[in-house]
Design a protein that fits this description.
It contains twelve helices and 15 strands. It has helices spanning 57-72, 83-94, 102-121, 127-130, 150-162, 175-185, 201-211, 229-239, 251-260, 276-290, 303-313, 359-364; strands at residues 3-16, 23-24, 27-28, 31-41, 46-51, 137-143, 168-170, 191-194, 218-220, 243-245, 266-267, 293-294, 321-324, 327-328, 344-346. Strands 6, 7, 8, 9, 10, 11, 12, 13 and 15 form a nine-stranded mixed beta sheet that branches. It has a four-stranded antiparallel beta sheet with strand order 5-4-1-14. Strands 2-3 form a two-stranded antiparallel sheet. The chain binds magnesium ion.
């Protein structure tokens, strides 16, 4: 079976996040930009992938068109056992364009699509290619956007619990917001705090110590820059909290540096950024070897969320799947990946990623 084409589709779905907003670089995320990667074959089977985008969707699409698609077009479709070598060859051919960032996002999109395809060839859900399903549903946490005002943070936390979520993550940088959230949800609900890399070491240690009484499950990315693993390790040892990071790391090699430095208790591979399912699996194995827990990064709603769900279903480790807390104008999966009233997401049992993308939604929300 031959790969006949690799195409990137830019989909933009508006959302309403209530009190929240989110800043990435200089731009507010005003809509959910998704780069869906479609791998076509001469058998008629299609694989679907997802390359990280947010505000760089056009750039990610260009990287797929210009760099990744020519590497795959005309090649034999690899089976699951052959995907790692197939993808390593592409990583080698493209390494001079960067081992982190847009290039790896585009590579991740192709990798996810090849795993989807490999499972579709066998008519099994993706998780069957990597292990036994240990969780037919995975508990989700509500990943709140940046809100700011502590009273609004508290209100959004209460609303999330009413909707069924059993765990919450804040994107806040003040102790007042953290304590307001804890007071709103009570002592028993897991609370995570994601800072998105604002602080130097001493400030991060002070922040962690000041948050200890609110008992966060972990403090995520307190330190700037994200690749300063030595400082992150110092914050972990002196701050007295679990530390999570990894959404800004790519490939198992950078995760090895981060974990070997003792920087994290929770590693956060993002399947649409790290190099896809292939690198994610290597990172999961390394985390197990080094005694680090996995807390995947997945604040997106394209094929990457489905891939994350499939990957988490083979691990009975008590971890939560990250779901951005927002109302979307449309769903690529006909609502089948929404958390239920108990805060759980069912692992879809269809072939590959488990669901087919809704072509009508793709066309309606396509960015030309
Ligand atoms: Mg984060």
């Amino acid at each position: 079976m031959l790969i006949t084409d690799v195409r990137a589709h830019h989909i933009r779905i508006p959302y309403d996040a209530g009190a929240g907003s989110f800043k990435q670089g200089a731009s507010a995320i005003a809509a959910l930009d998704i780069v869906v990667v479609e791998v076509s074959t001469d058998s008629g089977l299609t694989g679907w992938g997802d390359a990280f985008s947010y505000v760089c969707a056009k750039t990610t699409c260009a990287a797929i068109d210009e760099m990744v698609a020519p590497q795959a077009r005309g090649q034999q479709v690899p089976d699951a056992a052959g995907i790692p070598a197939f993808m390593e060859n592409i990583q080698r051919n493209l390494h001079l364009f960067g081992r982190y960032g847009i290039t790896m996002f585009a590579i991740s999109g192709l990798d996810i699509a090849l795993w989807d395809l490999a499972a579709r060839v066998q008519s099994v859900p993706l998780h069957r290619l990597i292990g036994a399903c240990k969780r037919p549903q995975v508990p989700a946490y509500a990943s709140l956007l940046r809100i700011g005002a502590p009273e609004q943070v508290a209100e959004e936390c209460r609303t999330a619990l009413r909707r069924g979520y059993t765990a919450i993550k804040l994107h806040e940088t003040t102790t007042a917001a953290v304590f307001a959230a804890r007071q709103a949800i009570g002592a028993g609900v897991p609370l995570m705090v994601d800072m998105n890399c604002p602080l130097d070491g001493p400030a991060a240690i002070a922040f962690a110590q000041a948050c200890r009484a609110a008992a966060p499950m972990f403090l995520e990315e307190p330190v700037w820059p994200p690749e300063d693993f030595a400082t992150l390790a110092e914050v972990r040892s002196k701050g007295g909290l679990n530390i999570a990071a990894g959404e800004n790391a790519c490939t198992v090699h950078q995760f090895r540096q981060m974990m070997s430095a003792g920087a994290v208790s929770h590693a956060q591979p993002s399947v649409t950024k790290v190099g896809g399912v292939t690198e994610y699996l290597k990172i999961a194995a390394l985390a197990d070897e080094l005694g680090v827990r996995l807390a995947p990064h997945s604040p997106y709603f394209g094929p990457g969320l489905l891939a994350t769900l499939q990957l988490m279903s083979v691990r009975d480790d008590g971890s939560f799947i990250e779901v951005f807390y927002m109302k979307r104008a449309a769903c690529l999966w006909r609502g089948r990946i929404d958390a239920d009233g108990s805060g759980n997401m069912a692992v879809p049992e269809g072939p590959g990623l488990g669901c087919e993308p809704d072509k009508e939604v793709m066309e309606r929300y396509r960015v030309a």
